[in-house]
Write a structure and sequence with these properties.
The complex is a heterodimer of chains A (251) and B (213).
Chain A: E1 4-15, E2 18-29, E3 33-37, H1 44-51, E4 59-64, E5 67-68, H2 74-79, E6 81-85, H3 96-106, H4 111-124, H5 141-153, E7 159-163, H6 171-188, E8 191-196, H7 199-205, E9 208-213, E10 216-221, H8 223-228, H9 232-240
Parallel strand pairs in A: 3-8, 3-9, 6-7, 7-8
Antiparallel strand pairs in A: 1-2, 1-4, 4-5, 9-10
Chain B: H1 3-9, H2 11-45, H3 47-62, H4 65-72, H5 82-107, H6 111-119, H7 124-154, H8 167-176, H9 179-207
The chains are: A alpha/beta (251), B mainly alpha (213).
Chain lengths: 251, 213
């Protein structure tokens, strides 16, 4: 039995009277990429934010490394989990180096150590170290997203939450980043909870795919199982993405 | 009497009044900063307080300055000296632009940046001091700039209650129907306002963050 890193148990979330998540049960195992797939409004981003307590759940519980997230010190919890979002959210007044190294400097690591770590992280995400003195507005979309991933990895968290991190990129850059991210994840062995609405991305990156629809978990399984599922909602999703023969992953 | 003659003959008094003017504006601005910026930060964190605080500052702003000087006259300690009174009134007038701009600057920070900052584990005070305030600095400074320029103008009216400053010359000139005397008060005040505006404008530009990416 693989080790559970993140567990959703009977999770409920309501927002202004609307049920966003209902009875969600899901376990993410160490070292896997679990993709939360679903259309807009299916509750996938909400589920992600319950893990690092950007949102507070209405019922049930979420456990991180076996401990209820409400029992964690929230700052400790968040620094233990890397977080990357589609808009990246780089600090516009900080250079790339300070963006990536911010948490390390808040943790009072010595300057030389931070500098070395930032250089290492930039190389890891395929960026040239020269970029470290630039500001976010001097970067391309793909570079910004790479910096975002480097920043999420800075404190070497054992797990990552990723909310459509490659969603705003052009298709070529996106597929480059997907490929690089997959090999990076395999190298580092991080546990990843990855949100997307893109079936291709889910099939390519996911160890397992969880399909959410209107706040309910509809199906859970490997990409291979997903493609041959007889569940009508899964079938609908797969059909919406057209010919699937081409997108079978070639890891 | 010719303007230049008046100025050269009374240069010591004009310099004294200018310093008095600067003192009133400077002290009132510092006090307003100490009150206005924390209030702006407060209402950005407690949305329920936003309306009452802005409304109160708005109401103060609508009181005619002479009336405000009059209202404050009976206040203990403050009312004893005209300068104290003037400083308090100028401080109250400066609050609105400071509160409003601090609030606008903080709430104008990109939501994705705030989300990323929280998500990566910044504490609320780290978020405020490392992200929100630096990114709001140029907007806050624009408020300071407005507050100072308004104060320099309003401080001339403080002479009406005997607080001194360059308004002294303006009122004297009005009573004497002498333009030269009026100008000897008005021109230094105008130069002061322009200088403050230029200096703060330059600072504001320097503090502007690189355009949000």
């Amino acid at each position: 039995m693989p080790e559970a890193v993140i567990e959703f148990r009977d999770v409920e979330y309501q927002s202004s009277g609307r049920e966003v998540l209902r009875q969600l049960n899901l376990t993410i195992h160490r070292g896997e990429i679990l993709v939360l797939l679903g259309r807009s409004g299916s509750g996938k981003t909400t589920a992600l934010k319950l893990v690092n307590r950007l949102l507070a759940l209405s019922g049930g519980e979420v456990r991180v490394e076996g401990r209820d997230v409400r029992d964690w010190n929230v700052i400790e919890l968040r620094r233990h989990i890397g977080y990357a979002i589609q808009e990246v959210g780089l600090f516009p007044h900080y250079t790339v180096e300070r963006n990536v190294g911010l948490i390390l400097s808040l943790e009072r690591l010595p300057k030389e150590k931070i500098h070395a770590r930032v250089q290492e992280l930039l190389r890891l995400v395929g960026l040239s170290p020269e970029i470290s003195s630039r500001y976010p507005n001097q970067l391309s979309g793909g570079q910004r997203q790479r910096v975002g991933v480097a920043r999420a990895l800075a404190a070497d968290p054992p797990m990552l939450l990723m909310d459509e991190p490659f969603g705003a990129l052009d298709p070529l850059t996106r597929s480059d980043l997907q490929r690089e991210f997959l090999s990076l994840q395999q190298k580092l062995g991080k546990t990843v909870l990855f949100v997307t609405h893109d079936l291709h991305e889910a099939l390519f990156l996911g160890s397992r795919i969880a399909l959410l629809e209107e706040g309910r978990l509809v199906s859970l399984g490997s990409p291979e199982q997903f493609l041959i599922s007889s569940d009508p909602l899964v079938k609908k999703y797969v059909e919406a993405f057209g010919s699937v023969a081409r997108v079978r992953r070639d890891k | 009497m010719n303007f230049w003659n008046f100025v050269t003959q009374n240069r010591v008094e004009i310099a004294d009044l200018t310093l008095e003017h600067l003192w009133m504006v400077g002290v009132s601005t510092l006090l307003a900063l100490a009150v206005g910026i924390p209030l702006g930060i407060l209402i950005s964190r407690r949305p329920a307080l936003r309306k009452p605080v802005i409304a109160a500052a708005n109401i103060i702003q609508t009181i005619p300055s002479l009336a405000l000087f009059g209202f404050l006259l009976p206040a203990p300690w403050i009312g004893e000296r005209a300068t104290r009174l003037a400083i308090l009134a100028l401080m109250l007038y400066s609050l609105l632009p400071l509160i409003r701009n601090t609030y606008a600057g903080i709430s104008g920070v990109d939501r994705a940046v705030i989300m990323a900052a929280r998500g990566m584990g910044l504490t609320e005070s780290q978020l405020l001091f490392k992200v929100q305030l630096p990114l709001a600095a140029s907007v806050i400074l624009a408020g300071v700039r407005i507050a100072i320029v308004i104060s320099i103008g309003l401080a001339t009216i403080a002479a009406a209650i005997g607080a001194g400053g360059l308004g002294e010359l303006i009122f004297r000139g009005l009573a004497m129907v002498n333009n030269a005397v009026i100008l000897a008060g008005a021109i230094p005040a105008a130069i002061m306002a322009l200088a403050a505006d230029t200096l703060l404008g330059w600072l504001e530009k320097r503090l502007s963050p690189p355009r949000a990416a």
